[in-house]
Amino acid sequence: MRASLIQIAVSEDESVDSRRERAAALVREQAGSADLVVLPELWTTGAFAYEQFGAEAEPLRGPTYEAMAGAAADAGVWLHAGSVPERDAEGALYNTSLVFSPSGELAASYRKIHRFGFDKGEAVLMGAGRELVTVRLPSTTLGLATCYDLRFPELFRGLVDGGAEVLVIPAGWPERRRGHWTLLARARAVENQAFVLACGTAGEHAGVPQAGHSIVVDPWGEVLGEAGAGEEVLRVSFDAGKVGVTREQFPALKDRVLGVEAPRR
């Protein structure tokens, strides 16, 4: 499988419409060189631009949906279009990822379960998703997660139980915690014996410098490719069949013990 992770830069000097057009053009440029293309989290607004969430929120089938569906079809790729601030019919906001097939059809959407911010920002402005989501491709199954989800290993166990072999994680991860980004991406790959494709943003969101450093990790925790800090397209080829081989050669997942009682206090 050939993957292109588009580490797009987010800047307040560029309008959302302009960045949407630029992102679509970058996706189209992957035609013939990628099977799967991934964009970051909340790249239309910036993950820390909280005041923009409501102003730029879209229905699921809004302008970003239309632009990304067309780009996926034109490039003939599976496209994880990152996430957008979605406003549902009742007016609630969600951090929602969109995945398109090579024909431009919506293959899946995922509302982020773990919202960052503790008692402010995304945690209070957006609703929480309730469902784990996997997407079946011809050669493998994707498991969907978003940014802060990376810190919660039980979510990824659920995705693996649902058949996931490639874990795709768009993010708007801050530079000051970049060490955690790399560490957790490798940990999720090793403990689940799965590929991890983690795509971050470059630039600065509402004064918060972004980590960049999008990364692809194999089921043994080996880094197959890592971007730098600026805008770039990280291209990595990998054999999705390695997941099955790894799980057969080192069947650690079979030794999971579930239902253990918590210690008494």
TrEMBL record:
TM annotation in the entry: none
Alphabetized UniProt keyword annotations: Hydrolase
MF terms (GO), sorted A to Z: hydrolase activity
SUPFAM superfamilies, sorted: Carbon-nitrogen hydrolase
Keyword Cytoplasm belongs to the record: no
CN hydrolase domain sequence ranges: 1-240
One family name in Pfam for this protein: CN_hydrolase
Family: Belongs to the carbon-nitrogen hydrolase superfamily. NIT1/NIT2 family.
The name this protein goes by in its record: Carbon-nitrogen family hydrolase
Organism of derivation: Streptomyces griseosporeus
